[in-house]
Structures are given as structure tokens and as C-alpha cells.
UniProtKB/TrEMBL annotation:
Gene3D superfamilies: 3.30.390.30, FAD/NAD(P)-binding domain (3.50.50.60). Its main location: cytoplasm. The gene is lpdA. This is Dihydrolipoyl dehydrogenase. Signal peptide: none annotated. It comes from Neisseria chenwenguii. One of its GO terms (cellular component) is cytoplasm.
Length: 477
């Protein structure tokens, strides 16, 4: 029977990174993963993120943005391109190529770092002294490996909607939404969260008429509401996304004619809409399916997450859990950094993750990004703050890009000037937010950002101006 110092279950961004870091630190490491490629005929490492999440969605967002720009934006640059056609199957093929390249890259990294990659479903069997026994099941049979340390990184799956089953033909979860080879004329989306907005944007840009049905009365409730409201206007008024808030979803019937959704509006009216395809994106739930956590007494909380402390320690000695299967935001970078930290803790190091300093990004156009506290949170906790706001409207780089819209807001402590939150909607703010993260990590003040030299002409000058505006000394405001 093979014995390892560390066995990781799951090779998503949490698990594969944990395995690589553990191997780098000198541990004999194996990583068990059950993921298969789109064709279902070969293992595919990388988990949700690489196969059916972050990476493929960003590939489609880029393709659809190019198509939209060619249709609507090129003319003002003096470029005429004649008849513009869109080939959804080709867009999906490009996306699949990126996925294959990256999932293959992890296989290479495992070989390079001497991580043993075991294909199959991993489940706890029991213990042999201090060692945990984990069974690996695949079509070839079952094997059992033993490990001193186990890192559970089994991720998450889409939250089901009781009214309908996902068939990924007409009623789609993220997998189906990423694989449509024809543009649906009418696309319905349930949930105006991150997936709803990103996938709704993709298909809207290439010609679908998109309706998003959201249960909450507030749009993007977790985001700073000034930024969320501005984004809502762009999405609905300029881009034509039909986002209906405060709806209650009733019966859903999928037949040969389409998918009919009955719902009650925020005004109490009963409505019914028929869509060619329906995406269900109402959140994700932790995945402990088939893990057989009970065999060793691994505890979960009432929502099914594996219980961990701030260091990702479970209730069992030497068993750790990271990423989407534990508390905290379901984000690839959070999973990755927990993976690194756990491997280092096993090696006796003392890494630290600041959970208050995790950036959030929504890759719509304009993008939305933030780090730290929102104004609503600061008000609720009674923290006195100052704010500085600046817009992209007169920023030279944004005008050159043809993307001169959006806002950056810096929130700083009224007493100490320490930055408490940075919120943005605008072009490439997915990249700009990193400056806010670094600033917060180093306890920077708004004055620090105001005094740092920002290149000209860049989008980062808008953050600079917002920081200057905190003390009411913006130069272009
Ligand atoms: P996962 O990536 O879910 O990986 C878990 C792995 O474990 C899978 O390969 C699974 O097959 C395997 N597994 C499960 N059980 C077992 C078992 N018993 N035995 C063996 N293997 C098992 N996050 C971002 O930060 N940025 C984004 O832009 C972004 N976009 C997203 C877009 C979409 C459409 C979706 C769905 C998600 C997106 N996310 C994004 C979220 C991100 O994908 C997750 O937060 C991240 O993948 C979580 O990583 P993980 O390692 O915890 O789990
Ligand atoms: P989400 O939590 O972002 O949004 C789900 C939305 O569905 C919420 O607004 C919720 O109020 C709504 N909802 C829930 N039940 C409903 C119902 N019965 N009827 C109507 N609306 C309902 O979840 P989503 O979009 O499914 O994404 C899952 C997770 O994946 C995200 O939370 C995020 O962690 C991750 N993700 C991250 C991305 C990024 O970082 N750019 C991109 C995509 C996903």
C-alpha cells in the first residue's frame, strides 16, 4: 500500500496548489482527483475553475466583447468591417482549447514537482494508527493509499432549484451555459449574481434577449451600493439586460417549445415567460459527495461545509480542508491561498491570510471590483469614514480605449486616514483593484496613494484622483 506524507483530495485551484506547495516543501505528496474532460474520456485536473468556471467564462466574455466591439465600437475608430458574423461553435472551440492547455499544464506541474496524480474518487476508509486510509475509485478498480496529513479540497457544485432539474440541454447550470453552440433567441437566467451577470453578458452581447430573474430586491447586495446602482444602469439601460429584482420563482416547465417560468413580480403580479434556454445560477453548495467523511468522524456544519478554524484545521488531527468546501467566499484565489497556507502550516511555518483583504471581481463590461468594507458595512458598524470619488469619464486612457465610464471610490478611516475599502466599476478594474489590496495589506492611508506616482496616461490615475479626493484635493475633479 502506498504511503504519503500528504494526500490532497481534489485538484481544483485549492487542491492542486496545496499539492504543489507540499511537494516543494519536501513532502511525499499525492493528489486524488475525479475530474474528467468535456468529452468524458480522460482525466482533467484544475477543478471547477479551469474546466467549468473562471477560465472558460473569461474566454467567452472576451470573445463576446470582441464581437460586440466589432458591431458597435469599431466604426468610431474609422474601421468598417462589412458584414459581421458570429459563430458560437467556434467561440466554444477556442474556449475548449484554452481549458485543455491549462488543465494539461497542471499535469506537467505535478510531474515537475513530483506530485503523484491519482485519478478517481477519493473517500475516507478509516485509520491505520496515525495514518488516514483513503480509497481511490475509478473504472480500473479500487486502491487504498495512506497519509499522515489529508487536505480536503473537494470544492462546490451548483445549488439546485427545487422547481426544475438541470439537463444541460434546455435548463443549464454553469457547465451548460459555457457550452451553447447556438445563440438562444430568448435566454432566461435565474439569479443576478456573478454567474448570472457574466453569462448573461456573454449571450446578450452575441444577440440573445436576456431576462434575469432575481429573488432579492437589492442588486448585488454584497457590493457597495453606489457602485452596484451605477452598474445596474449600464447593464439595464445601455446594454438591454432585463434584470427583474424581487421576484418569486414559481413553476418551471421545460418541453419541446422551450422553458416556461412562472413568477411573481415585486409588485405581486403573476407572470409567465418562455425562454429558449434557461440558466440557473442561484449560488453553489459545498461538495462532500462520496467523500465518506463519516468513516473518520470529519465534522460538517449545518449547511454542509466542512468545519474548519481560521487555519483550515478540521476537528480531526492532521486533516485540513480548504477552498469552496469550507466557510468564506467561493473564489479561486481564496482557495489557492488557503492551499499554500495549509501546506506551509504542515511544514511548521506560520503563514497568514487576511480574510478581510480578499478582492472580488465581476467580469462584466464595465467590470466591477472591490476590496475591503462597503459604505453600508461601515455605517452598520458605526465606523466614521471619509470618501473620495473619481470617474473614468475624463481619464485620457479610458477615452482612448473607448471605455470612459465608471467610478472609483476610496473609503478611509475619518480618524487615521487608513484605507478601509476600495470600490470600482469601470474598464479593467479587475487589474486596478490589486493596488487597493496592496494598500490595505500595508495599512496604507489615502494620503499614501495620493502621494505615490501613478503613470500617465493610465486607468490607475482614477484611483489616484479618488485618493486625492478623500482630502478634497482632486486635481481633475
Ligand atoms: P473546485 O475547483 O471545485 O475543485 C474541486 C475538485 O475536486 C474537482 O476537480 C472535483 O472533481 C474534485 N473532487 C470532488 N470530490 C472529489 C472526491 N471525493 N475525490 C476526488 N476528487 C474530488 N472564482 C474566481 O475567483 N474568479 C472567477 O472569475 C470565477 N469564475 C467562476 C465562474 C463560474 C461559472 C463558476 C462556476 C465559478 C467561478 N469561480 C470564480 C469560483 C471558482 O471556480 C471556485 O471558487 C474554485 O474553483 C474553488 O476551488 P476549489 O479547489 O475549492 O474547488
Ligand atoms: P451568487 O451567490 O453570486 O448569486 C446567486 C444569486 O441568485 C443571488 O443574487 C441570489 O439572491 C439569487 N437567488 C438565490 N435563490 C434564488 C431563487 N430561488 N430565485 C431567484 N434568485 C435566487 O451565485 P452564482 O452566480 O451562482 O455563483 C456562484 C459562486 O461562484 C459565486 O458566489 C462566486 O463565489 C463564484 N463565482 C465567482 C466569479 C468571479 O469571481 N468573477 C464568477 C462566477 C462565479
Amino acid at each position: 500500500m502506498s504511503q504519503f506524507d500528504v494526500v490532497v483530495i481534489g485538484a481544483g485551484p485549492g487542491g492542486y496548489i496545496a499539492a504543489i506547495r507540499a511537494a516543494q516543501l519536501g513532502f511525499r505528496t499525492a493528489c486524488i482527483d475525479a475530474g474528467v474532460n468535456k468529452a468524458g474520456d480522460a482525466p482533467a485536473l484544475g477543478g471547477t475553475c479551469l474546466n467549468v468556471g473562471c477560465i472558460p467564462s473569461k474566454a467567452l466574455l472576451q470573445s463576446s466583447e470582441h464581437f460586440h466591439a466589432a458591431q458597435h465600437d469599431f466604426a468610431e475608430h474609422g474601421i468598417s468591417v462589412g458584414e459581421i458574423k458570429f459563430d458560437a461553435a467556434k467561440m466554444i472551440e477556442r474556449k475548449d482549447g484554452i481549458v485543455t492547455k491549462l488543465t494539461g499544464g497542471i499535469k506537467f506541474l505535478f510531474q515537475k514537482n513530483k506530485v503523484e496524480s491519482l485519478f478517481g474518487r477519493g473517500s475516507f476508509v478509516g485509520k491505520n494508527g496515525d495514518l488516514y486510509q483513503i480509497q481511490v475509485d475509478n473504472k480500473g478498480g479500487k486502491t487504498v493509499v495512506e497519509a499522515k496529513h489529508v487536505i480536503v479540497a473537494t470544492g462546490s457544485v451548483s445549488r439546485p432549484l427545487p422547481q426544475t432539474a438541470i439537463d444541460n440541454v434546455n435548463v443549464l447550470d454553469n457547465e451548460g451555459a459555457l457550452n451553447l453552440t447556438e445563440v438562444p433567441k430568448k435566454l432566461g437566467v435565474i439569479g443576478s449574481g456573478v454567474i448570472g451577470l457574466e453569462m448573461g453578458s456573454v449571450w446578450n452581447r452575441v444577440g440573445s434577449q436576456v431576462t434575469i430573474l432575481e429573488a432579492l430586491p437589492t442588486f448585488l447586495a454584497a457590493a457597495d451600493q453606489q457602485i452596484a446602482k451605477e452598474a445596474f444602469k449600464y447593464f439595464t439601460k445601455e446594454q438591454g439586460l432585463d434584470i427583474r429584482l424581487g421576484v418569486k420563482i414559481g413553476d418551471i416547465v421545460s418541453d419541446g417549445k422551450g422553458v416556461t417560468v412562472k413568477f411573481e413580480t415585486d409588485k405581486g403580479e403573476m407572470k409567465s415567460e418562455t425562454f429558449d434556454k434557461l440558466i440557473v445560477a442561484i449560488g453553489r453548495i459545498p461538495n462532500t459527495d462520496g467523500l465518506n467523511a463519516e468513516a473518520v468522524g470529519l465534522e460538517k456544519d449545518e449547511r454542509g461545509f466542512i468545519k474548519v478554524d481560521g487555519d483550515c484545521k478540521t476537528n480531526l488531527p492532521n486533516v485540513w480542508a480548504i477552498g469552496d468546501v469550507v466557510r468564506g467566499p467561493m473564489l479561486a484565489h481564496k482557495a489557492r491561498d488557503e492551499g499554500v497556507a495549509v501546506a506551509e502550516r504542515i511544514a511548521g511555518q506560520k503563514p497568514h491570510i487576511d480574510f478581510n483583504n480578499i478582492p472580488f471581481v465581476i467580469y462584466t463590461d464595465p467590470e466591477i471590483a472591490w476590496v475591503g468594507k462597503t459604505e453600508e458595512q461601515l455605517k452598520a458598524e458605526g465606523t466614521a469614514y471619509k470618501k473620495g470619488i473619481s470617474g473614468f469619464g475624463a481619464n485620457g486612457r479610458a477615452l482612448g480605449l473607448g471605455k470612459a465610464k465608471g467610478t472609483v471610490k476610496v473609503l478611509a478611516c475619518a480618524e487615521t486616514d487608513r484605507i478601509l475599502g476600495v470600490h470600482m466599476v469601470g474598464p479593467m478594474v479587475s487589474e486596478l483593484v490589486a493596488e487597493g489590496v496592496v494598500a490595505q495589506e500595508f495599512f496604507a492611508s489615502s494620503e499614501d496613494i495620493a502621494r505615490i506616482v501613478h503613470a500617465h496616461p493610465t486607468l490607475s490615475e482614477v484611483l489616484h484622483e479618488a485618493a486625492l479626493a478623500v482630502e478634497k484635493r482632486a486635481l481633475h475633479g
